[in-house]
Amino acid sequence: MKFIRWTGLVGLAVFTAILLVIGFFFVNGWAKQGLEASGTKANGAEVDVASVQLSLSPLGFKINGVEVADSGKPTHNAAVLPNVQVELSLAQLFLGNLRIHNLIISDVEADVERKQVARLPEASEEKSAGESIASAGKAKVDSYTDGIAQQLPFASSVLDGASANTRQAVTDAGTVLASSKDEVTTAISKVPNESALADYKEQIDALENTEISSLDDLADFREKLQALQSAVSSDKAAVAELKTVVSDAVKANAEALKDVANAPGEDWQTIVETYPLNEQGLLKVADLLLGEGVWQKAEKAIYWYNKAKPWLAKVRLNNDEDEKPARGVGQFVHFAHPDPTAKFQLDTGLVSFVSDGWPWQLMVENIRSTTDGAVQPVYLKLRRGEESNEALLINGVLERSGGSSVDTFTLTGRGVAFSSRDINVAGAKLNWVPEDADVTGEIVSTDGELEGDITVSFPANQFTVLGSGDVVGYLQSAFQSVNAFNIDVQLSGEVTSPRISVSSDIDNKLSAALKNVAKEEYQAWLADVESGFNDNVADLTASLDGPAEEFTGEESLANFRIDSFEQQVEDRIQALEDKISAKQKELENKAKKAAEDKAKEEAGKLIDKIKF
Amino acid sequence: MIQSILKIFKALNSDVGPWQIAFAAAMGMIIGLTPLWSVHNAIVLLLAFLLRVHLATFFVFWLLFSAIAYLLDPWFHQLGLSLLNNDSLESLWTSLYQQDFWQVLHFNHTITLGSFLVAIIAFVPFAVAMRLSIVRYRASLLPWVNKMKVVQMLKGSRLFQLYQSIEG
After folding, report:
1. Stretch (H or E) spanning A119
2. Which of A172, A479, B55, B110 is least crowded, fewest Cβ atoms below 10 Å from its Cβ?
3. Residue with the larger pLDDT of the pair B12 and A221
4. Residues A80, A108 contacting (CB under 8 angstroms)
5. Rounded Cα gap, residues A590 and A582, in angstroms
């Protein structure tokens, strides 16, 4: 044994002993600190680990009391993992690969209040994708419930903002009436008043009483008449302008009052269109039945799906070794293997938790990176209830290939219990106790584009309408006849901002009983609204009565002034003109006859003279 | 490093077994030629500490062959690649590839395979050649060197005192 170096052997023994001591006393602590540090960095909020135990056979870890704080709500844990068991491959660790044969996480709890507020690594201005999605989802739920609340509110609340057009038309008409009245008043002030008319009358009377016996008298009369006509001409122009102003004002007022007459009709149309009795209105009832909780669950599922996506993307590409090596680095050559190990591989994973009073299990298989571009799909299974007797089973296949991703989730559920819930519908409280429902559906996400259809079948239901709202009878009558119905949920759009639309055959199921009852109730509601609306319109239009009367008074005065001027001045002047024309003709005829007589007499005398 | 070289000279000039020096050099050759972070090098290192080989020689030849390996790596890569891509050997490599043990040894890495094969093949001839060289050096060259005036002068220098103070 002289070729053995005993000091070296002792050194090796000491070195091994030190390693074992370090492993025994320190490795667990180092693993705990490492998990907390890396977990906090990845999560964006504090991750605490109660203890870590390393086991050598099989190689792995037992991790207890993992608390993952919610970065968006540091007072709560997003998840609490009381027990985590990880079973690793030692040989693959030597190859630089992390192969997890088995990962078991049991009794997971979510959204649990923390004893202390969680530390956040550093303030980040940008919200994480998950938080943005959660916010977007919350906003979606809020707008959704707001939309539902719009269906058939109380009549009084509808009327508050429903007369906008009428109100505006009345205001406009009031302005037009007042303006017209002012314009007519101004124009009236320019035409001759009573005293001016009396002056004209006196002058005209004087002219009428004037004796005209000769052409000189006539010339004198004409001169006086022309002076009067000259004085009247400016007043005639003022009267003509008054006529135009009155005519224009009447037209403007007619238009404004026509608008007032039409506006209530437009407002009424708006009311009817905003609160219609149609399929969509009835479907809102189905939306109410699913409840806000379902939307929050969907929102939560999308949150975790988007949390997991970046990790799946990370394990997807691992082609470093296939690249041409640098000088002196060498190259790994791979051979056929029925189970080639990737840089990261999780053979099986199991997460169990309790929610809604049910045991849930999430199983994943074959999450792995790849070395040759051949991407194996990742399988996952979410089960509610015990195996082989599950109430809900979601099978997922996550495929990554050639830069594109296709994630398919198939849902199958039977006997899915929906808890009874109270819903407020148009002031009435509706209590719904559904029997266990069946769920089927498929959701496919292709490169982030969603397409999915989920059908929830409610085979038996019991509805009780409570309270004393307007629609109590309507709902009670309708729902009594409803037994089974389906609710279809269609998904589309982006994963980060999914569009969710809900449809149902509940309206078909209800149609026989519901539609007539609903129509009657709707008509009654509409009549109630109409009555209030008409009162509202009457009140509004009453304010126009005063201005309209005032304008009518001004219009009458204007017409009176015009008539008076025309009758007392213009007509009489015209009569005077006619009179002097007749007189002139008479005088001319008389002068002509006298001239003829004189000529005859002169001719007789001349004839007599010739005879003699 | 100078101390290690001086130790080699002292070992050469002393009665240290020629096989101890020869195997140390051969082991240094293996660990020097092949990529450092390999499992087989951990075994070589362990053997170097456990077996009575001359450690200074081991470390010096490790360094020496690491420098040589830097120049030879492209050739090792070509050699390893041609072997791994050799059709007649494919079944062998495939069968080894099925076992984690062989994958841990990085047998499918071109430089590791090429350099390891060269080192293993050269191990025994190199060790034997080293031993013969040492024996012949001690028998014929060492007395002649000791008689040289330059050596006589060096023996009176401080460097020689340092050399003497080093334990072989």
Report:
1. none
2. A172
3. A221
4. yes
5. 12
A40-66 pLDDT, tens digit each: 887 788 889 998 888 877 778 888 888
Which candidate, A370, A367, A353, A439, places its Cα nearest to that of A397?
A367
What residues does each domain of chain A span? 6-45, 161-274+545-587
Q: Which residues of A touch B108 (CB under 8 A)?
A: 332-335
- Contact with chain B for residue A325, Cβ under 8 A: yes
Do residues A582 and A590 make contact, with C-beta atoms less than 8 angstroms apart? Answer: no
- pLDDT single digits (tens) A175-187: 888 888 888 888 8
Q: Please tell me the distance in Å from A101's CA to the nearest CA on chain B.
A: 15
Contact predicate B163/B9, CB 8 Å? yes
Q: Are strands A344-355 and A358-368 parallel, antiparallel or unpaired?
A: antiparallel
Omega of the bond leading into A58 within 30 degrees of 0 (cis): yes
Q: Which of B50, B70, B98 sits opposite A8 (nearest CB)?
A: B50
Nearest-by-Cβ selection for A330 from B77, B90, B103: B77
Which residues sit opposite A397 in a β-bridge?
A379, A408
Q: Is the pLDDT of residue A419 over 90?
A: no
* Among A492, A352, A358, residue whose Cα is nearest residue A415: A358
B125 interfaces chain A, CB cutoff of 8 Å: no
In chain A, residues with a C-beta closer than 8 Å to the C-beta of B27 are none
**Yes or no, beta carbons of A328 and B50 under 8 Å apart:** no
Chain A residues in contact with B111 (beta carbon < 8 A)? 328-330
Q: Write the DSSP string, A346-413.
A: EEEEEEEEEETTEEEEEEEEEEE--SSS-PPPEEEEEEESSTTS-SEEEEEEEEEETTEEEEEEEEEE
Closest chain B CA to residue A96: B104
Q: Which of B12, B49, B16 is nearest to B31 (CA)?
A: B49
Closest Cβ opposite residue A5 in set B51, B70, B103 = B51
pLDDT tens figures, A77-119: 888 888 988 888 877 777 777 788 888 988 888 778 888 888 7
In the numeric block, the tokens 């009489």 are attached to A572
The answer to whether A555 touches A250, Cβ cutoff 8 Å, is yes
Distance CA A437, CA A430 (A): 19
d(CA A574, CA A580): 10
Task: Give me the residues of A, 51-110, that contact B with CB < 8 A.
Answer: 89, 91-92, 94-95
Cβ-based neighbours of B57, under 8 Å, separated by 6 or more: B7, B8, B11, B21, B24, B25, B28
Please report, to the nearest 10 degrees, the dihedral formed by the alpha carbons of residues A19, A25, A28, A34 taken in order. -80
Report domain extents, chain B. Answer: 2-165
Reported as a single tens digit per residue, the pLDDT across B92-132 is 999 999 888 888 898 999 999 999 999 999 999 999 999 99
User: Taking Cα atoms as reference points, which of B20, B16, B28, B41 lies closest to residue B123?
Assistant: B28
Q: What is the CA radius of gyration of chain B?
A: 20
Cross-chain residue pair B52–A325, CB shorter than 8 Å: no
Are A330 and B35 an interchain contact pair (Cβ–Cβ within 8 Å)? yes
Question: How many residues does this entry show for chain A?
Answer: 612
Q: What is the β-pairing status of strands A344-355 and A98-113?
A: parallel
**Residue of A4, A325, A330 with shortest CB distance to B50:** A4
- In whole angstroms, what is the distance from residue A253 CA to residue A260 CA? 10
Residues in CB range of B94: below 8 A, 6 or more apart: A335, A336
The distance of B128 to chain A (nearest Cα, Å) reads: 17
Residue type at B33 in one-letter notation: L
Contact between residue A437 and residue A411 where contact means Cβ atoms under 8 Å apart: no
Looking at the DSSP bridge assignments, the partners of residue A55 are A60
| CB of B92 closer than 8 Å to CB of A79 | no
Longest dimension (CA), chain B: 65
Residues B74, A327: C-beta atoms closer than 8 Å: yes
